[in-house]
């Protein structure tokens, strides 16, 4: 049994703890960035600010990368993050003028500000509890370091049916979240209530709605200028390093090859996979030779692919590429393994493909949306399921489809009646 003196002492200690918690919240609440050696983000820190960065960006007519980019981020954002209250619109007005491939995190004693580019080329994940807000460039590192083992059931279902997690900022792990493309996050310490105030904002969304009324020839000319300028910027970021282009017989990779030729990029090697005698490698070889580029053919062999698939290198690649959100890409993996084994790839090589051209052309949209004048709501969801959520037939049942439909409805606003 405690004496009155002991009870008083305990009460005084509790009061002191409360006082110190409110007076010195940084002791109990903090920001942390787990920087993975695997992804090698640059870092520059001092007592006022910590900046972590990967990639490059164009701002105005200037190109920024490595520590020059970090200095520019500090110049642009630190004055805004020093204010008592951070204005999201002010940050957005700067980010919207960024072009390039980048992710970064800026940490000050009070605020944490992080952003990813318009395609989320470099993943940025986060987790928070009562006293620490942790960000990382490596989902597996974050999961393992903080012993986060509980999977998100809904995300696992999405992943199994489509090959990726698409619902908001989720990953396969329940307590690991991510920034989506074109997003930034502002986190502040709430000293009074002792919690993290988290705000996620979107500075860019690919949502072409405005129809441009103009002559077709003028539109083609404008598209050409945009494409040419884009490839000039790409060439600048490559800094004369050797480019390896995955060239098929399709139009997208052919456009990339032609633009690299047009801008005068010299060190280009095209490579194609497939079966000998198939039209893909035959046409790809002709295109490469016509443009004056080197060409390598890597024939698909089941035995060779199987060997690479069950190798330790594939496990490393899978952990590197999946980000706890999507299946790693396999289409060119076996070709690259073979070329690497044959010492055909320099250590500083850059790889390109034409995959993203399909998205901007609308290949992700079910064809029936274009063939009909209107689509009923019920048909809308069924077509989305058939297009994107049908990897495993045994999962394509009413229960699973209803759960996916709920997620889709939360993303978009649907009217009553048909969609025109």
Structural class: alpha/beta
Radius of gyration: 26 Å
Largest pleated sheet: 7 strands, antiparallel
SSE order in H/E notation? HEEEEHHEEEEHHEEEHEHEHEHHHEHHHH
Unreliable stretches covering 5 or more consecutive residues: 1-26
Helix residue percentage: 40-55%
Gross morphology is globular
**How many H/I helices?**
15
- Mean pLDDT, all residues: 89
Q: Give the end-to-end Cα distance, rounded to a whole number of Å.
A: 77 Å
* Beta content: 15-25%
Extended strand count: 15
Question: How would you describe the overall organization of this protein?
Answer:
A hairpin with a 3-residue loop joins strand 7 and strand 8 (132-136). The protein is built from 15 helices and 15 strands. It is globular and about 70 Å long. Helix 7 (251-262) packs parallel to helix 8. The chain is an alpha/beta fold and 420 residues long. The strands form 3 sheets. Strands 2, 3, 4, 5, 6, 10 and 11 form a 7-stranded antiparallel β-sheet that branches. The chain has a 4-stranded mixed β-sheet with strand order 1-8-7-9, with helices on one face. It starts with a helix and ends in a 9-residue tail after the last helix.
């Amino acid at each position: 049994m405690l004496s009155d003196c002991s009870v008083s002492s305990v009460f005084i200690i509790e009061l002191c703890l409360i006082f110190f918690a409110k007076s010195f919240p940084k002791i109990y609440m903090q920001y942390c960035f787990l920087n993975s050696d695997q992804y090698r983000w640059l870092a520059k820190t001092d007592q006022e600010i910590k900046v972590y960065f990967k990639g490059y960006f164009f701002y105005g007519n200037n190109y920024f990368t490595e520590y020059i980019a970090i200095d520019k981020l500090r110049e642009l954002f630190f004055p805004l993050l020093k204010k008592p209250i951070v204005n999201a619109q002010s940050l957005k007005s700067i980010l919207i003028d960024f072009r390039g491939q980048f992710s970064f995190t800026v940490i000050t004693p009070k605020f944490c500000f992080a952003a990813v580019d318009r395609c989320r080329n470099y993943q940025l994940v986060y987790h928070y509890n009562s006293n620490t807000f942790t960000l990382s460039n490596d989902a597996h590192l974050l999961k393992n370091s903080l012993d986060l083992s509980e999977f998100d059931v809904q995300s696992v279902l999405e992943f199994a049916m489509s090959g990726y997690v698409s619902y908001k900022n989720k990953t396969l792990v329940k307590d690991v979240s991510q920034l989506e493309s074109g997003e930034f996050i502002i986190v502040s310490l709430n000293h009074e209530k002792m919690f993290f105030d988290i705000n996620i904002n979107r500075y860019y969304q690919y949502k072409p709605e405005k129809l441009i009324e103009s002559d077709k020839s003028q539109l083609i000319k404008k598209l050409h200028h945009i494409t040419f300028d884009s490839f000039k910027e790409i060439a600048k970021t490559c800094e004369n390093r050797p480019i390896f282009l995955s060239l098929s017989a399709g139009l997208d990779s052919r456009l990339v090859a032609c633009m690299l030729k047009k801008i005068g990029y010299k060190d280009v090697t095209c490579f194609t996979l497939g079966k000998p005698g198939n039209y893909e490698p035959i046409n790809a070889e002709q295109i490469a030779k016509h443009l004056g580029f080197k060409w390598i053919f890597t024939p698909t062999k089941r035995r060779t692919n199987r060997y690479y698939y069950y190798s330790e290198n594939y496990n490393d690649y899978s952990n590197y590429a999946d980000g706890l959100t999507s299946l790693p890409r396999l289409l060119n993996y076996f070709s690259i393994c073979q070329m690497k084994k044959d010492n055909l790839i320099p250590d500083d090589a850059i790889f390109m493909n034409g995959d993203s051209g399909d998205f901007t052309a609308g290949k992700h949209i079910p064809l029936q949306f274009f063939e009909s004048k209107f689509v009923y709501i019920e048909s809308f969801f069924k077509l989305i399921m058939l297009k994107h959520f049908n990897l495993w037939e045994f999962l394509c049942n009413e229960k699973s489809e209803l759960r996916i439909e709920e997620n889709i409805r939360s993303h978009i606003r649907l009217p009553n009646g048909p969609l025109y």
